[in-house]
Design goal:
Layout: E1 2-19, E2 26-40, E3 43-55, E4 62-65, H1 67-78, H2 86-99, H3 106-127
Antiparallel strand pairs: 1-2, 2-3, 3-4
Protein name: Zinc-ribbon 15 domain-containing protein
InterPro entries: Zinc_ribbon_15 (IPR031493)
Domain Zinc-ribbon: 18-67
Length: 128
């Protein structure tokens, strides 16, 4: 019995906070490699397709990456968090933006939180 389409995901850890276009959550997205296998008698024999993804942990929305981008992000993740250089962070941002992700600075996130708090306060006052 030959079966195809069996997949094995491998998670390489969080990359950075990205706003999901699907669920609008701002969470650490994970770098993931998914390999599809051709199987014979339920034994994976030949990998026939590999996908490289950045994945939202909340809704499982994915951004497709090229193999080179994936390898570069994996090397950056391997390096210690404290050892990340400005160039490495800029490269992560470039790859994520190129794949369609939305990255915001801490100042932008604080501004958005302040606006949301202001809107909640205004709604609460209008209800009275």
């Amino acid at each position: 019995m030959i079966i195809w389409g069996f997949t094995t995901p491998k998670n390489f850890g969080p990359v950075r906070k990205i706003q999901c276009n699907n669920c609008n959550s701002e969470t650490n997205w994970f770098l993931e490699k998914i390999t599809s296998w051709l199987m014979l008698l339920f034994i994976p024999l030949v990998p026939y397709k590999t996908r490289y993804l950045l994945k939202c942990p909340e809704c499982k929305n994915c951004l497709e990456l090229q193999k080179e981008e994936f390898e570069e992000l994996r090397e950056i993740i391997k390096s210690s968090e404290s050892d990340r250089s400005w160039d490495a962070c800029a490269r992560v941002n470039s790859i994520v933006n190129g794949a369609g992700g939305v990255i915001r600075t801490q100042t932008q996130l604080n501004f958005i939180r302040d606006i949301q708090e202001f809107e909640r306060e205004r709604e609460r006052r209008s209800e009275k």
